[in-house]
Amino acid sequence: MILPIVAYGDPVLKRVGQDIDAEYPNLAELIDNMYETMYNAYGVGLAAPQIGLPIRLFIIDTTPFSEDEDLTEEEINTLKAFNKVFINAKITEEEGDEWAFNEGCLSIPDVREDVFRKSKITIEYLDENFEKHKDTYDGLIARVIQHEYDHIDGILFTEKLSTLKKRLIKGRLDNISKGKVRVDYKMRFPKQKKRR
């Protein structure tokens, strides 16, 4: 089932997600719905807060990045094969030089900005079968993981921008929170407070 993606301005996007256990209700169905929602919106990652759930769960499929013509065959194959579920993730190490990459977010449509992140991470997480993993990733995969990981910590990529950039996009962010944006996927916008 395709779920509505929560838009910028909804308080759930600012909450730190809670750990879950294997008894979390309908988890397999939730993960399937998240994949369907992400693919419908042409995303490469989706975190539970983006569908209104303040839990530490996100999914990633970097296949769309494999279509970049500047990549080596090895990089293409790595990106095509990377499709994972991360539960209760914890980044234990970030290293390497920071590098800029133009990021966007399904919760913040039509806003793309360069964000600086470390090039290599080590992350501990549980998969959908609640098996433990500790893996190290670099490059684009590390970047996508960091973006989704920020979501479960209540952080949006726009918070990583300079003060000037934040001022420049403020109007666009306000419009998104008011539902004044055109998207070709289902979204849920924050309820607007009535003025007296």
UniProtKB/TrEMBL annotation:
Residues annotated to bind Fe cation: 105, 147, 151
Which superkingdom does the taxonomy of this entry point to? Bacteria
Instruction: Name the catalytic site residues.
Output: 148
Q: Name one GO biological process term.
A: translation
Per UniProt, the cofactor note for this protein states:
Binds 1 Fe(2+) ion.
Q: Which InterPro entries match?
A: Peptide_deformylase, Peptide_deformylase_sf
Q: What class of enzyme is it?
A: hydrolase
Known catalytic reactions = N-terminal N-formyl-L-methionyl-[peptide] + H2O = N-terminal L-methionyl-[peptide] + formate
Under SUPFAM superfamilies, the record lists: Peptide deformylase
Q: What is its EC number?
A: 3.5.1.88
PANTHER family on file: PEPTIDE DEFORMYLASE
Summarize the protein's role: Removes the formyl group from the N-terminal Met of newly synthesized proteins. Requires at least a dipeptide for an efficient rate of reaction. N-terminal L-methionine is a prerequisite for activity but the enzyme has broad specificity at other positions.
HAMAP family of this UniProt entry?
Answer: Pep_deformylase
> What protein does this entry describe?
Peptide deformylase
- The organism encoding this protein is Formosa sediminum
